[in-house]
Amino acid sequence: MLEQLAHIGRDPKTGGYVRDAWSAADLELREWFAGEAGRRGLALREDPNGNLWAWWGTPSPERPGVVTGSHLDSVRQGGAYDGPLGVVSAFAALDLLRERGVTPSVPVGVACFSDEEGARFGVPCVGSRLLTGVLPPERALALTDDDGDTLADVLKRAGREPGGLGRDDGTLAAVGTFVELHVEQGRGLVGEGRSVGVAGAIWPHGRWRFDFHGRADHAGTTRLADRDDPMLPLARMVLAAREAAERRGVVATVGKVRVSPGNANAIPGEVAAWLDARGADEEAVRALVAELSEGAQVREESWTPVVTFDPALRDRIARAAGGDTPAPILPTGAGHDAGILAAAGVPSAMLFVRNPTGVSHSPGEHAERADCEAGVVALADVLEELCR
Ligand code: GLV
Ligand code: MN
Ligand code: MN
Ligand code: MN
């Protein structure tokens, strides 16, 4: 299945993936999902927030299902596994349950959440945040992409009705438990010598937009003393972020900058930069952002508090996934839809599959075939345990 997806949104020059939400690539991936659901006789549904569900059995509030899945969108120039591995493994684990002759006592669902990465509109986990109500629909619809198109425009162009966005108790009530399998985005499992691990917690994390205003002018004829150059405060902020992150024991990244108008021979007039900050200690992350925000024009674009996955479910899953020795439990600095659902009170858990390089959000992301297969078996074992 991963091979079937390998060409979609792939940049042949870099080998990286560009799968923005609601782009042609994303729509093709959604078609693929629908095809896989259809081939298995699963009931396909797109909820009003753009999340896809494929059901084996019919869930109801009295009989909610066990759901597994992830997302199909990517960061720009991302790897092949972040997201798709979880969706592909979900279908493969369901196949395995059927091969084993398992008759689940509750419905089993495969989910694909919309716009997990937030590559296009800046806010991550848009589909699951809308579903659970933590992102107000008015705010989501007004988000803009780099072309200035709003999410509302983009949804209409994709043939979707933007009026239905927002908290969806009916869809949520169908999810009794959610398990997301994901490629590991670090080398914890390499260190443990294991193929599969279980998530313990997700660090608190957020994104902030900094705007620096200056005055555009000629690069050759404007004396240094006469300049109002917004690149200078940006440069100071980037260096201060690194210094403060080291001092406070957290991580901070400026991975996206928009320089306007963008002439090599002109002082820019405006610079926008996006700070991503995360860490085990929420207070330390908050303090770093407060420190950098002093005297700057800053807007919080998203904030996700710490997620500690339910310990009883986590341990049960670590035992089910681990074979003879329970799977190791790892914390992570990456955000996931499972974290958004957990925060909304849906019992949720995550499985990680070993990544030999530890690299992610880059074309260098990798997982060996044998580890992916071990992930599918572990996921099937977990589903069998949860739906018995
Ligand atoms: C999602 O991948 C994130 O940025 O943590
Ligand atoms: Mn990601
Ligand atoms: Mn992901
Ligand atoms: Mn000229």
UniProtKB/TrEMBL annotation:
<dbReference type="InterPro" id="IPR010158">
    <property type="entry name" value="Amidase_Cbmase"/>
</dbReference>
<dbReference type="GO" id="GO:0016813">
    <property type="term" value="F:hydrolase activity, acting on carbon-nitrogen (but not peptide) bonds, in linear amidines"/>
</dbReference>
<dbReference type="InterPro" id="IPR036264">
    <property type="entry name" value="Bact_exopeptidase_dim_dom"/>
</dbReference>
<feature type="binding site">
    <location>
        <position position="265"/>
    </location>
    <ligand>
        <name>allantoate</name>
    </ligand>
</feature>
<keyword id="KW-0862">Zinc</keyword>
<keyword id="KW-0378">Hydrolase</keyword>
<keyword id="KW-0479">Metal-binding</keyword>
<dbReference type="Pfam" id="PF01546">
    <property type="entry name" value="Peptidase_M20"/>
</dbReference>
<feature type="binding site">
    <location>
        <position position="207"/>
    </location>
    <ligand>
        <name>allantoate</name>
    </ligand>
</feature>
<feature type="binding site">
    <location>
        <position position="361"/>
    </location>
    <ligand>
        <name>Zn(2+) 2</name>
    </ligand>
</feature>
<feature type="binding site">
    <location>
        <position position="82"/>
    </location>
    <ligand>
        <name>Zn(2+) 2</name>
    </ligand>
</feature>
<dbReference type="GO" id="GO:0050538">
    <property type="term" value="F:N-carbamoyl-L-amino-acid hydrolase activity"/>
</dbReference>
<feature type="binding site">
    <location>
        <position position="117"/>
    </location>
    <ligand>
        <name>Zn(2+) 2</name>
    </ligand>
</feature>
<feature type="binding site">
    <location>
        <position position="82"/>
    </location>
    <ligand>
        <name>Zn(2+) 1</name>
    </ligand>
</feature>
<dbReference type="InterPro" id="IPR002933">
    <property type="entry name" value="Peptidase_M20"/>
</dbReference>
<feature type="binding site">
    <location>
        <position position="278"/>
    </location>
    <ligand>
        <name>allantoate</name>
    </ligand>
</feature>
<protein>
    <submittedName>
        <fullName>N-carbamoyl-L-amino-acid hydrolase</fullName>
        <ecNumber>3.5.1.87</ecNumber>
    </submittedName>
</protein>
<comment type="similarity">
    <text>Belongs to the peptidase M20 family.</text>
</comment>
<feature type="binding site">
    <location>
        <position position="182"/>
    </location>
    <ligand>
        <name>Zn(2+) 1</name>
    </ligand>
</feature>
<feature type="binding site">
    <location>
        <position position="71"/>
    </location>
    <ligand>
        <name>Zn(2+) 1</name>
    </ligand>
</feature>
<dbReference type="GO" id="GO:0046872">
    <property type="term" value="F:metal ion binding"/>
</dbReference>
